[in-house]
């Protein structure tokens, strides 16, 4: 596991690589330190984000190569993954070194789904899905996009937008196995797929 904790300020990420392990970032904002390239800022099996501010920016998304994503974001979320991406649950248990050189083992931390107070854009260069533990709640506008001829979107958990427009754009098929909605007056839901849209009965 790889943990980055910033108590007061922000985290500008150039490259964090944990192989198939888990990365957890806790900070004010989490920003792309090298906006001139499309290289992944985080490479891991799972990414846990906890922020008091934004993740990425509209013109500089946080770029990732991760299998699993969960985030608790007090601001906006802009994230682009280089491959298939799943929104679900992830756990991390950290071991630190104390002043006496001994190992300190923290209690395991588990986080699930996406909770974003502001607006969110999540894009995958492959299929994008959520597990039953991967509920999505967003305060403002939300775009979920899967790019590619074989890129599907499958949502197994509820998706709720409190006061914004919702767009879901699949490169191939879109399957909705849970409730999808926006609560704001005059808001729209835009569902797009290059091939099929399937909604589970319920």
Task: Tag the structure with descriptive keywords.
two-stranded parallel sheet; mainly beta; 52% strand
Q: Treating each run of at least 4 consecutive H or I residues as one helix, how many helices?
A: 0
Main beta sheet: 19 strands, parallel
Our estimate of the beta-strand percent is over 45%
Q: Which shape, going by the Cα principal axes?
A: globular
N-to-C SSE string, H for helix and E for strand: EEEEEEEEEEEEEEEEEEEEEEEEE
Helix-strand category = mainly beta
Low-confidence stretches: none
Q: Please identify the oligomeric state.
A: single chain
> Taking Cα atoms only, what radius of gyration do you get, to the nearest Å?
17 Å
